[in-house]
Amino acid sequence: MESVRLEPLNESHLAAVAAMLADPDVLRFTRVPDPTPPDFAREWLHLYEAGREEGTREGFAAVGGDGRFLGVALAFGIDRAEGELELGYIVCPEARGRGAGTAILRALTDWAFAEAGAARIRLVIDVENPASLRVAERSGYVREGVMRSTYFKNGQRIDAVLMSRIASDPPPPP
Fold this sequence. Notes:
By secondary structure, this protein is of the alpha+beta class. The chain has one domain: Gcn5-related N-acetyltransferase (GNAT) (Aminopeptidase). The chain has helices at about 15-20, 25-30, 40-55, 100-115, 130-140, and strands spanning about 5-10, 60-65, 70-80, 85-90, 120-125, 140-155, 155-165. Strands 1-2-3-4-5-7-6 form a seven-stranded mixed β-sheet, with helices on both faces. A hairpin with a 2-residue loop joins β6 and β7 (about 155-165). The longest helix is centred in the N-terminal third of the chain and has 15 residues, at about 40-55. The mean pLDDT is about 95.
């Protein structure tokens, strides 16, 4: 599995994030708008910086052991009073297929339990994204069901799998 460290998303990551957001699979399987507005990466960064200050969002760059940008790890909808939040992750095309997604999600999950005080974490994954579903399963997430027609993108309603982990779940195998 790829070695990963999470560092707060900042201006130095903008070019890599913008390049990643141009990938057809990122546009297909995430809630990133398609087409992506020209300054979307910068606006996204500012959204996560503001959320960091408010305690409602956190954005990380996922960086490999050799310093390569591997993707992003995101926490949003952080409700500290209820101990609940949603996580998301995006892996760069060149980092896929080597365990980077699993390493990113495991690191982000550890952060959510240890630093964000999460009691329950949820993932919302497009039903047509089997790679992301495998990453979630390898990271110890449990499938709760399919949310039908849960969000709207490019003129279509999207079904998504709801997965979760709670603090008392056993850790996934290495």
